[in-house]
């Protein structure tokens, strides 16, 4: 359902905009992704979206998709977050080598950045590595230690 709204603002300008209901298929082919074997969202968000040739993957954490629970151990949790992202990218035909950009959130930069670097080196080999921004934040959902999102 396409809803059009027309608003007249001072100076005699008229603005017209169109809104697409969330239940309707968007006009530009944006698709929500939820491949088999992926984790289950813990709230009102989707795992990933495909828009044209790009796949945008939401923040993945160290959740075991078989149990939908956080895995034990810092390195194992960081690795699982990357593997969850990898699984979704591969479901759309992309590999880690096709990552355009990564955004990594950690709750302790000093403690977890070296682990993120180690896991990335394991998964990407000797590179080239994608652009990456890593940010320390106070807290993550379920008191997790890492969250990784990617654009492919």
Verbal overview:
This protein is α+β, with helices and mostly antiparallel strands. The chain has one domain: 2-Layer Sandwich (60s Ribosomal Protein L30, Chain: A). The protein is built from 2 helices and 10 strands; from the N terminus they run βββββββαβαββ. It has helices at about 75-90, 110-125, and strands at about 1-10, 15-20, 30-35, 50, 55-60, 65, 70, 100-105, 130-135, 145-150. The chain has a 6-stranded mixed β-sheet with strand order 3-4-5-10-8-9. The chain is globular. It starts with a strand and ends with a strand.
Characteristic key phrases:
152 residues; alpha+beta; 60s Ribosomal Protein L30, Chain: A; 6-stranded mixed β-sheet; two-stranded antiparallel sheet; 10 strands
Major beta sheet summary: 6 strands, mixed
| Helix segment tally | 2
General shape: globular
Cα distance spanning the termini: 30 Å
CATH architecture: 2-Layer Sandwich
CATH fold annotation: 60s Ribosomal Protein L30, Chain: A
Strand order of the largest sheet: 3-4-5-10-8-9
Quote the average pLDDT. 88
State the share of residues found in helices, binned by percent: 10-25%
How many distinct folded domains?
Answer: 1
Judged by helices, strands and strand pairing, the structural class is alpha+beta
Which ranges are low-confidence, i.e. pLDDT below 50, for 5 or more consecutive residues? none
User: How much strand content do the residues show?
Assistant: 25-35%
Work out the radius of gyration.
19 Å
What's the helix-strand series?
A: EEEEEEEHEHEE
**Assigned CATH superfamily:** RutC-like
Strands, count: 10
């Amino acid at each position: 359902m396409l809803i059009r709204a027309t608003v007249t603002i001072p100076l005699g300008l008229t603005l017209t905009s169109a809104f697409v209901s969330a239940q309707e298929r968007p006009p530009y082919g944006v698709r929500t992704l939820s491949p088999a074997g992926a984790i289950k969202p813990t709230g009102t968000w989707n795992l990933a979206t495909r828009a044209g040739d790009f796949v945008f993957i939401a923040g993945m954490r160290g959740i075991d998709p078989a149990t939908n629970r956080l895995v034990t151990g810092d390195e194992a949790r960081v690795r699982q977050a990357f593997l969850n992202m990898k699984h979704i990218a591969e479901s759309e035909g992309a590999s880690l080598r096709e990552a355009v950009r990564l955004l990594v959130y950690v709750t302790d930069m000093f403690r977890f950045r070296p682990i993120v670097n180690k896991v990335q080196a394991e998964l990407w080999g000797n590179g080239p590595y994608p652009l990456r921004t890593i940010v320390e934040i106070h807290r993550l959902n379920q008191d997790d230690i890492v969250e990784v999102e990617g654009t492919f």
